[in-house]
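Action item from last week, closing it out:
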Amino acid sequence: MNKTKKIFSLIAAVIMQALVFSTGAQAQCSMKNTALGKSEVLAYNLYFNWQFIWVKAGTASMSTVSTVYKGKPAFRSSLITRTSDKVDKFFRMRDTLLVYATDQLAPLYYRKGAHEGERYYVDEAWYAYPNGKCAVTMKHKHRDGSITNEKKTYDHCVYDMLNIFLRARSFDPKNWKKGHTINIDITGGSELVKAKLVYQGKETVKADNEKKYKCLVLSYIEKEDGRDKEIVRFFVTDDKRHVPIRLDLFLRFGSAKAFLSGMK
């Protein structure tokens, strides 16, 4: 190789390296969106297991819309659960999850405000992708009002509970077998939580809109005291949109279920 070609090769290598380091992490944390459109609103009826009997206890809603985040195309998604006035007398639940993600499903922001019984807390996380890495600023507001902050940088992608679900809706499960597992790191206030999504097979589910849907079943599992604990089980339509039809919630005080009642 002559001197001129060598110089151009070195310049090209430097440029390529700069591109990789400037977009690498976000590119690695991105994927093609095949499920989400410009707007989706899902409504659910919420049921609690009350002394071995399932009773209607409130409502839940999930909405996802295309938007702009810091001048760039993005998705905004929220999941809200509300107990009814009757149930509030025994156990009050007001949970709101809000996330932003790029139009290629890389996480940008996460917030969970949870009011469960006498317990109230707020988790937040901001994502950035400097120098080919994933930087996460985490904030946890405790019940007593004190705040814990943590900022960490990782060589791999990290997510939160709702952002990973948005991502999972665009997974291609064509070759999955029961037990197929995807390991993930989840932001949780001021630390990362080891978690995984486990494919449980297929099941036909009757929703509260009186329709039946053939669903894929996914378990979201976290490590708790060194043991696996299932947090949510999702039943999503067996098609490209993977619409959540039913959610089984395994809470600290018991269990709840959410059945789709309407969508647009």
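Closing note: The chain has three helices and 14 strands.
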